[in-house]
Amino acid sequence: MKKQHLFIGGKHTESVRYTTLQAPYSGETLAEVASASAEETEAAVAAAVQARQAMCQMPAHQRADLLYKLSAMLEERREEAARIVALEAAKPITAARAEIDRTIETYRFAAEEAKRLTGETVPMDAARGGEGRIGYTMRQPIGVIGAITPFNFPMNLAAHKVGPALAAGNTIVLKPAEQTPLSAYFIANLFHEAGLPDGALNVVSGDGKTIGDVLVQHPDVAYITFTGSPAVGTGIRSKAGLKRVTLELGSNAAVIIDKDADLDKVIPRCVTGAFTYQGQVCISLQRIYVHEAIAENFIQRFAAAAEQVVIGDPLNEDTMVSALITSKDVKRTLEWIEEAKQAGASVAVGGKAEAGVLRPTVLVNVPREAKVSCQEVFAPIVVINTVNSVEEGTKHVNDSMYGLQAGVFTNDIQTALRAVDEIEAGGVMINDIPTFRVDHMPYGGVKQSGIGREGVKYAAEEMTELKFVMFNKN
Ligand code: NAD
């Protein structure tokens, strides 16, 4: 049985406690994984503090080389990494490979950002009294970063924190989700092999609250970057005091489909958006508002396409939908479907679960108050309602406590421009699903979807302190 220790100060460190990690689909035991205590988390912070000088003194070209090297090493071990994700997260293998490919690119973007973290000059004589002075800004590493990540993209969402943090010369304590620690340790080992100074990246797996409370409240941790659920994110913000915090939280992402949209293109994109990785994606397509002129045709074709989706073993090359992350989620989602039905919704397809796998489910005419519509469903469930215009659709999109990304399919430029202005979200995708993301674009939410932006350049900036310098020539 594989025993996975903590990774602190460049060493695999035995923990006082271990828990058994099982694959969500097969139930197979994957490893005994360390569950860090508060003291062990403090030791990880101390190691990160110690490594600060080595990282601060490392020139940008060396930080970039390290990140390029990591990216190349990951490319060589792509299949091994994808299998780890497929097993511990029940992510279908093709989606797991796609995640690794994005992770390789995210670290490459981080390598590039390491070389272009710049300040600017300030025209001092623009102010009376500023004559004869030179002013400029510079960006310095913020210090020790506490990074807390969710289960659903265990490699790439960790890369969105570790990559920019190292690019900007910081050190990190990474706390992966309970269900997906092996991905984090895999990356930590690669960084170690690549020559990262000991202590620059530490990994502590285990209970969220035990480890999270230490990281969030520790005086030596300068910044918390969290991706996960709104409930946990809100708790972190309330405990963090003056510490800088970035929160990447959930959503109930929506798309609007106008009457002139080309359904041959739209339907496959909506299937991808709603069902990839069984809907356990923060920008998974959950709500569809389709123009009444094409609604019947759309619903019929979309439901037929949903029925074709292959479900089952994540290691099967054809699988698109596998087990939900826990059996509790299966129970919850079936209850939510039942609640929607009681409230008048009809099930066009799906609505049943077998062996931990919820079948792709399409619900029609769902009232706005039903949980499947107004809360984050995080499962392969999509609700479809009809609207008489994109304007009406926009009102429904905004009728949400969340606002991460939204999509609009329309060929009318004025309609598109108006939707861009009016939709309340961190990103608007015209002629695509809200689920679209590449890793250098700014990414983050409004309302309860979060605070701050990721996307390597934007994250790297948040992981620095802006210092202003003035030289008096008088
Ligand atoms: P989660 O909030 O349950 O857990 C996320 C992380 O927080 C885990 O590492 C967990 O151990 C830790 N945690 C738990 N309690 C904590 C506490 N009290 N203090 C500090 N940390 C604690 O989320 P999850 O189920 O792993 O992931 C799903 C959620 O993540 C969904 O809401 C999804 O939308 C969101 N998500 C958001 C984005 C984004 O970029 N906006 C991306 C992916 C996932």
From TrEMBL:
Which keywords does UniProt give here?
A: Oxidoreductase
So which domain of life are we looking at? Bacteria
Quote the InterPro entries the UniProt record gives: Ald_DH/histidinol_DH, Ald_DH_C, Ald_DH_N, Aldehyde_DH_dom, ALDH-related_metabolic_enz
The terms under GO molecular function for this entry are:
lactaldehyde dehydrogenase (NAD+) activity
Q: Does the keyword Transferase apply?
A: no
Which ranges carry the Aldehyde dehydrogenase domain?
A: 20-469
Can you tell me which residues the record assigns to a coiled coil? Answer: none
Q: Which SUPFAM superfamilies match?
A: ALDH-like (SSF53720)
Which CDD domains does the entry link to? ALDH_y4uC (cd07149)
The record, for Pfam families, names: Aldedh (PF00171)
Q: Does the keyword Transferase apply?
A: no
Per its UniProt record, what Gene3D superfamilies does this chain match? Aldehyde Dehydrogenase, Chain A, domain 1, Aldehyde Dehydrogenase, Chain A, domain 2
Family per UniProt? Answer: Belongs to the aldehyde dehydrogenase family.
Official protein name in the record: Aldehyde dehydrogenase family protein
